Batch of 3 targets.
Target 1
Amino acid sequence: MADSLIHRTRGLTIVPIAEKGLASTRPAAKQKALEAILLYVELDKGEPIVEELIPLLSHKQPKIIAATLSCLTSIYHAYGCKTVEPKPTLKLLPKLFGHADKNVRAEATNLTIEFYRWLRDAMKPFFWNDLKPVQQQDLEKAFEKVKDEPPPKQERLLRSQQDLQSGGMDGDDNGVVAYEDEAEIDLEPEYEAVNVLAKVPKDFQERLASSKWKDRKEALDDLHTAINHPRIEEGQFDDITRGLAKCMKDANIAVVTIAANCVEILAKGLKKGFAKYRSIVVQPMMERLKEKKQSVTDALGAALDAVLAASSFADCLDDILEFLKHKNPQVKLETTRFLIRSLLSIREAPKPEEVKSTADAATKLLTDPQETQRNAGAEVLGILWKIMGDRIMAPHMEGLDDIRKTKIKEFCDKAEVKAKFKVKPAGPPPKAGPPQKRMGMMGAPTPASAAAAAAAPGRKPPMGLKKPAPAAAPPPMEEAPPAALAPRPTSRPGASKLPSAGAPKSGIAAPVGLRAPQAGLQKKGIPGPSSGMSSPARRVASPVEEPLATIPQPKLGPGPNRGLAGRPLGKPSATPMQNHDVIPTTASGLAGLSTAERAELDELRAENERMRRENEILRSDKAKLQSQIHELTNQNAQLIEDHTRDVLSIKAKETQLIRARTDHDAAEQTVQHQQKEIERLKRELSRQVRASSPPPMDLSAEIYSDGGLNGGGYSRRSYVTSPTSPGKENEMSGGLRSSKLSGGPHLGGAGTTGLGIASAFGGGSPRNARMMGPDGVDIARANSTAGITGAGGASGAESWKRAAEVTQNLKARIEMMKVSALASVTRSFSGHAERS
């Protein structure tokens, strides 16, 4: 009713209050007008009130404009920019700073400073560039005064926030309400949507399917230029997103980077409209996270963040959990980092089932071989801890050692999250009414009976009820008056027909097992359920109906929460004290128990404590065994690697040995061949030496004389020259000397190697002279008709010299061949020895 009244009246009252009250010269009237507008904001919300005040900023009277600006400053100061939308007012600041009245400009400066307290530099894109440089400098000086102040807090709450706070939130010590709204301020400028499909090249798909990477890159560059707008009009982007997803598998990293940038632009431009394309591009991009180049992973990470902002954490969680199990360590690590960024950026806390699956996956990452991956898993758990709180994350922290818990707590402390899990406050308990109304239909348990049932051992209090206060200790038995259980007189009609409290007849028969113990308790002086001990703060008006209202209904059948109070009522017991459904527990919890039950309870507690200790020991042993398993696995992998390396080394040595044996055999064959060659050369040398050294020869030179020489006849003489005495003349037969001839020059054997031949021809008769060289070849042949000249002797000496030189050269060549053969054999043996 009040809300509808506010909606109907705010359009009629806000403007008159501002014109007459805010612009009044009386301080009291101005204060009451401002309080009325603040109450309108409190009862409704801030945006409609601001919309009513904004038209007054164009009023023709400057004092009304200044008063309205002052009112807006008070609204934003009291409720904050998180509660009241600041963007409509921010857009009007350039016009207000250009007003001719100095009071208007001063109030605009105050409003801008108030915006700066809440928004800091995030507000500047809305109006800063439209101000003059002098105005910017003045504002910067004013900002310096409030820059070091702590972040402002909301001073007044809306009525809806007050209702939420009354459900469980408290005020601070000073009485000022400290309400923290977890919603972030949306300061993104509003852009006009652009139809980018008309700007995309028509041949984009054909160029994207080209076999040349340059063509594909140019096509993506053109697409990037066409869609690069802050806001994109929705359309059919299925083919484009499929093409971009295909580019994630491209071999060229430049193509992958530009494709990721295009996905980011589309996601930011389409916003929630991109959610339907999420399944097309997310998995290919996460698969491409295996790329080790940082520029590629940064582009893919930015694109994934934009897709997450356009969809939701729940939509992306399945893909994230799937890729956290990827066999590639790089993909797993980058996926974990994407999960960390997602948890830090979401504005709504995840659901309990999402928290469980995420925490389980992060717990598995704590045992990863890589330290970076283990730290990332601990950071995920720390951020979840910061978002969800201790109660939700406590079960997931069980089983972790202290070192890991400390690491997770460090990440929890330094994490800055935008989402916060809030427990919905329980509704206020129902007001207490008459006894007959509190009993309910069909004997349903009332809050008092439920509290009594919750006090029983082994039972949990029902949802929405607080834990009951411990009952006071019962009075001494001898002081309890038995007459207190008797019915009291009443004026209610029909009360005389009601039986006593010991046998209630309200249409529902009391359980059989409750009557005798109750009577026995009353006889012993122990107060029963009707005495009101389960709720000492409230007295019972009617002792007749109170027992049924306070006796809880027993649980039938086995159950996990039965405990001592869940035993069958008909079971025979040694004493009537064994029925716990009617015996209230005291502060110690043991006042209404027998000795046997106390012993059993102590035994169960000791057993529980022992099982808890054993569980802790087993958990620690399990952690140790898991660490040993990881160490042994690493050692086994190292041993396998060493064994493989040794086997390969042995095979390499065997190969070298076989190769060395082969080279040895080849060297032996070469040596044998060289030895045979040496023997052959020796035989050839011997043959050449024998051929070049002929035996001593007797050469005779006959001198034939004809009729024209020495009296018409000739005389025959023989000259014998010894090879061992070159140049020496021998005796000539017939008393002639060999040194001179008749009518001829001197013939001598000087200069030859062992043989000189001289022939003298007289009387002009033709004669032949023949000289044999050391190799048995004719050296000179001379035909003469007149006599023998000295040229024949000179030619013979030169022939013998040449023969000697040939012999010496042949010997030198033989020696060189021997040396060469010996060196070759030596090198072969040396190489064989080195290889062996």
Note: The two ends are 107 Å apart (CA to CA).
Target 2
Amino acid sequence: MAELLYRLGKLATRRAWVVITAWLLLLAATVTSMTLAGGKLSTAMSIPGTQAQLVIDDLKKSFPAASHGNASVVFHATSGKFTDAQTAAIGSELRQVAKLPGINSVMNPFTVQATKDHQIANLKAGARKVANGKVQIADGLKQLVEGQAKLDAAQKTVTENLAKARAGLAQATAGYTQANTALTQAQMGEAQAQAAYDSAAAAGAPAEQLAAIQAQITQIQAGAAQAQAGVDAASAGIAQATAGITQLKAAQQTIDDNQAQLTAGKIALNQAADKLPAAEKKLYQGERILAAATNFRTVSKDNTIAQANVVFNLPTDSVDAATKKAVAAYLTAHVPAGVQVELSKDLTQSMEGILGVGEIVGLLVAAVVLFLMLGTFVAAGLPVLAAILGVGIGASITMTLASVIQMGSTTPTLGVMLGLAVGIDYSLFILNRHRRQLKAGMELRESIALANGTSGNAVFFAGLTVIIALVALNLTGIGFLGLMGDFAALSIFIGVLMAVTFTPAVISRMGLRVLSRKERRALAAGVESTDAPAATAATDASAADASAKKPSYFASKHPWISIVGATAVLVLAAIPLASMRLGLPDGSSEPLDSTQYKAYTLATKAFGAGSNGMIVAVASLEKPVTGYQQLKTEADLATEIAAVKGVSAVVPASVSKDKTKILFTVLPTTGPANAHTETLVRDLRALSPKLAATYGTLPGDKGLGITGLVASNIDVSAKLSSALPLYLGTVLVLSLIVLILVFRSILVPLIASVGFLLSVAATMGVVVAVYQFGFLGNIFDVHDPAPVLSFLPTMLIGILFGLAMDYQLFLVSGMREAYVHGLNARDAVIAGARSGRAVVVAAASIMVFVFGGFAFSHLTQVRPIGLGLAVGVLADAFLVRMILVPALMTLLGKSAWWIPKWLDKILPDVDVEGAKLERTHAIH
């Protein structure tokens, strides 16, 4: 490989403009393809197969609208309560937003709140109606009882009187018959007596006889008159009895009519009483549902803050930035007078402008470090130019492929971050080697080719190590993390190609201007620099007089102090790691003056922190439910969910078409990044067995599905945590194999691996202290401490492993060469450390500043990555590789280079530093 790179360096010097032009054309082509492809990045991160993702997949089938992406908008009346005019204006504005392309619907908070208030009023009115109905029915029943008693008494009186009247009629009729018979007999007797009188008178009966007969007639007439009076009296009795009976029959009809009315009243009251329990039951279930949703509001109680919701046509990970920008632009441009509008992170999160102020400052500082090291602006500008060109190509390719591959928003950022730092360093290694050789008197083109074959070979192996570590992220089985590793590896690959082709070509055009004026004057005067390559220095040292004064190096001179001091610092920095929590940043992590943070704090103030990250719950039933049973089931489940500690409100949102799934929105009492909210998600998932046993939901985890931001974070973190041991083990095994191959030693790789673990632990400890504990929050703009970025530990392990092996190669390979060339173990450590420390210090400093610039990025997800990489490089390069490793190797002495003979025979000679090439081509 060294010989191949040597020839490639020769070719680049002869065809410099062809090489430079080819890279520039490649940049133009990739930028053009990126522009035409219009790649999109997703701000959402998901892992197929997790519980939360399975619920989301189910939502797409059962509740299509619920699977769409959404974002909240907060309106704040800046001077008192919302006026009717402001409310109407906001409603009109939201209706216009609903008409924008890509928008499914917009929730008007005032309408939703009014609907809820109306429902509460209806329930109260219903309760009053039921209560009044109960009173009316009780009063009616009382009146019916009293009326029935009166009717019964009247009926009794009428019945008794009717009996008496009928008896009187019968008696009067009998008297009439008897009186009439007596009258008839009297009339007949009177006729007979009159006939007898007439006969007697005609016969000339004596006067006494006639008088007797006349007296008899008079007596009969008196009896007839008496009989007539009886007839008249009996007739009057009959008429009176008949009239009485008629009146009593009329009274009976009245009683019958009243009885019919009373019976109808009874039937009506019974029907009302039958309906009352059903209405009362529905009312009760409605009251239970509203009780669970009491704390859910879209307009604050004081009517000063309202939270609207914008629903997109597509899931969150498919909504393009243009749609979000259009919504944000319209909302901010048409806000009513006296109203403040703030937009949530879901609506404003964008990865546009990857290089912000912090990143540019980091690049400028790196350029200053290069100038201080190289002493010339021309030479200092080359590594920066090479890195920027390589990053431009890598980022353009990434964004082009983003049009056909769904990738996270941090994917190109990671590539830019690594591409800048590594691109500068790799170019610097070759440039620095070339400068040293020039100052030693080597011819220009030969020096370029030899630097490319030696340091370029080390760059190749260093880059290969980083690439392998990044590509190995695919072993985690986490798609978005594997993509991040793949495209970051692409940036490293391009950086390596730039270093071994573009850098030699540009150097050849620079000529001796890569040296400062002072260095060029010294070279012209024939003064040879003592800054020779590592292997040459080692060879010269081996040939020096044994009595000559030996060079010193602090870590070798004071190994125990160095080991204890470096280890103590690393372990102390690693202490916070024991308390690490993983998650994703929410709106509270955004800058204080950002609209995302203002939206978060306003919503928290008005509706509680949980309103910034509601939980979605889906209950799956064994049997469909309809009508009252559906209402009761909703009330039962809402009440059970609301009873879980940490739940502020539960709102039934929808029922699937097949009536077997019920969707709930759960409002936590704490924010998305709070540990209590994570506990709540676990408690809700643990509720499934109880719901299955009591309310007929599906058994197992299928009964109650939980998803949402917090649930997804928990699942992602759990998946990453489970994949971490495999990945870390793979990385450690890989490091041992590579280092055994390079250094032909057993203990050196072990030391390197232990040092790597210490630097990773210290790095994560610092990240936890800053972002989770808020330590130095004023410096890093951490005003609301939150969990550590969920994928950061895994990603840092991969990246820091590659970078740590870079520094291990550049420092310890020099020690190896010095030892092989005859120096004793201690002096070889000193020679290698002294020859490589300058370039490693410069390279590590550049990385620290470049990564440190990203620690102050305008993108909150990028900040912990930048700080972690900056601290990791600082710890690994300066504490582990330059202090701990040399100190341990000094104590181990020549045993550090021990390797079994059988293994030494079968290992290929990779000659990382190109020592053979140097001996073959070096010209002194």
Note: DSSP finds 29 helices and twelve strands in the chain.
Target 3
Amino acid sequence: MTVQIAFFLCLLPILLAKYAIAVDPHTLISQYGHTAWRIEDGAFSSQPAGITQTTDGYIWIATFSGLVRFDGVRFVAWTPIRGEHLPSFKITTVLGARDDSLWIGTGSGLARLKNGHVTTYPDINGYINGVVEDRTGTIWVARSRGTGPVCKVTEFETRCYGQADGFPFQHSNAIVEGASRDIWIGSYVSLARWNQGSLSIRAVPALNGSEGTNGINSLAAAEDGTLWVGTARPGPGGGLQRIGENKWKPLITNELDSSTLAVNALLLDREGMLWVGTNQGVYRIYNNAFDRFGSADGLSGNFVNGFFQDREGNVWISTTKGIDRFRDLRVVNFSQHEGLSADAVDSVLAARDGTVWIGNLGALDSLRHGKVTAFVANHGLPGVQVTSLFEDHASQIWVGVDNSLFVYKGGRFNRINKPGRGPFGVVVSITEDTDDNLWAKTVVPGELVRIRDGKVREEVPWSQMPKTLTLAADPKDGVWFGILGGFGRLQNGHLDIFPFKSTDRMEVYNIIVNTDGSVLGGTSLGLLGWRGGRFQLLDSRNGLPCNNVYTPILDNHGSLWLSSQCGLIVIAREELQRWWENSTATVKHELLDILDGAQPSSPPFRPNASRSPDGRLWFANESVLQMVDPNHQPRYAIPPPVHIEELIADQTRYSPRTGLRIPPRLRNLEIDYTALSFAIPQRVRFRCKLEGHDTAWHDIGTRRQVFYSDLRPGRYRFRVVACSGDGVWNEVGATLEFEIMPTWYQTNWFRLLGLVSGGLAIWAIYGFRVRQIARAMSARFDERLAERTRIARDLHDTFVQTIQGSKLVADDALDPDADPAGMPRAMEQLSAWLGRATQESRAVLNSLRGSTEQRNDLGEALQHAIEECRLHSPIEASFSVVGKAEEMHPIARDEIYRIAHEAINNACTHSNGTRLEVDLNYSQDLTVSVADNGMGIDPALVEKGKQGHFGLQGMRERAARIGSKLTVVSSPNSGTEVTLVVPGRIVFRNASQRPIEKIKNTFRRSSPTSHPN
């Protein structure tokens, strides 16, 4: 509420501006902008009864089937919220009060609508005929069919007045507040005046004190104390009467006697014009002059129910068949309706005496002091078709009519004859130079004629002239021509041609020559300018709304007006000067189009534009005469109130309210809004922004809906601002905050849960990967440690022991007490043992390299091991391979080879046997068997191994590492058999589909966690 009050306080100076709050009283009703909405057009479903406007800017229409709200574009039937109702849906009258409320009079009582809620007044029943608000905010009600004709509603009480209070009548039809703060009440039989509890009654002469249907229907009070009374019964004392100085007087003029009118409604507008609604249309009275407008002129219906004037000054009329709106137009039209002889105006001349001469079809019309006089053939006009008009320095009017030229002076037309009485031709343009020579451009025959002192002095044939379309005098000397493709100038008998270089054909329609010597011409390509020997073209590239310019004319303020294809274009003097200085500059302009009353057209004759001494501009457009008064341009300077009317989310409608929440999973959102400017609602423009979605304002033109798709959950703030047709912006606009609710998976707690779960998942993966890398590194370290342990065992069991024995032999030989003869034997033994050490070290190296040198053939590697063994032992050996060799994992193959190599080496070195059998079996599993017929191994040694030796222990550790089974069977004097069984799923690549890394992991899991030293 505070914002609204501040807003309207800001508007108060504007509301007080005279030009913005009333229609022009000097304009006829037919010259206003008129729009009608009829019942048959579907705007509303029944007869309108009254019209009002609330402080929020909406227009409300009372109809006999309900209440209708109007925003200038859309009619919306109003319905009360659930649980509330009106006394009746037959609405008889409405009033917009100053406290933002709407008072609703019905056929069964009174109601009040405020903030969307309805309040009814049971004490004020009956048929409500009128509701007014006085200066103190008190509501006064006129009613019939109730107890007491008048009721009063204040903040503190509701009271009705009747016979006990001195009222001699039971029913009242009309009520109004007078200039002295008194309340006037009209009934069927009399007129009552209520002033601070004092009641006075006046009889109405025409009613004769009888109850009936023809009582006082309407009242209007003027600021000077005059009271207008309208009765439905015409005749003496009836009709329209004016009460002043305690007298009843009708208004009588030459046109009409107001007592003859059957009056239904009255309105005194802000300009003091009295609008009278009758059953024969609308009458308007101003300065004792009548003007009428009825259904034949376009009114929705002849029976008028009521009037209303909105805050922009528009006048609204309700009839039995619809509603009408009248507004000021910036361009005023004159047609047959206003008295012209025809609607075919081809030329116009505003003379210095204030008379406007109008070249029409079949007549020469003159408009003076609002009166039209027609000169027709056989009634003073010597012809039919007026083709040109001009006023010379002596205020003589020159008229081209048919194929002749006349001069009008003293109420007579005098023909101008050519030497030899030849045909003069059709005169299409006339001008006068500084030497008082009159120049006339004719066609058929085409020539340029010079006239002086009423006689033709010179004739220049067309063949000697460029194709001339129009003439204009130079303020200093000579005459300018508008020619095809440029300008021409005739000065001191010398003709100069100034062609404009253009690839397009250019027709110069009309030209003006300014006091500074510059020339402006309306052309088919834009406004052509010539100054200082240089051409300039003002067209759409400079911002003009269209290029086809017919006529340029300057007003008294130096602003340039262009009659063009799209309307009247106005360019301020400063903008025109800026264009002269920079031909590429964008020129600010104003366009008056059809909504302003302009009717663009190109008349065939000249002049088609003229300026009268009072500054008004007149334009002929081949049909009507148009007038623009630059000094009086109606402006609607009130910023339009902006309202958000509805929000539609996935076809569900929501009224704008605080804390609006939209259900989840929203797909489509529509927001409807409006701006309440009723003068020219078609020009209201909008900008909007959805905070939380848009980063900038969007200019959406005249559209009154905006759409969004797939908005994310969250809080939003929609803002919309608007400007009136005159470009006045309401920057405050309207705002709607709403929230789109999230689904369960769009909530913050779900996002937090997902974030935490994701973090835990990443942490788990990271931990798993760290453990995986640690296991891999541990496995590599285990493999290295195992290999070092094996090498240590091999070196300890063979090479180190041999070196130790060699050291003992060397120590014995170096003993001084030793037998010198035994020295050679010791050296021989030392040499043999060193050779053995060499063989043993080579064997260790071969055990490291042997299997890796064989890419896949384990049998070949074992064959080499057997052959190497036989080099140092007389044992007989046999080797057999069963099955087809298969590709094996290299790690497993190395371990198998080293186990088998150890078993073969032990058989050759320690068994003392004579036969060695080695079997390699490729089947579902891999089996390697090494058997000898030697002395066998002690069972205790088989179980625990020999102290200080690591052969059997190393074989078992290798077997465990690759997940295989190692069996050693030995008995004294029967030899030893070592069997290794390796599962095929581990060793054979084609038998296991698991990746190599999984096989490695299997090896690593099978590796021992500790090794003997």
Note: The longest strand covers residues 729-740.
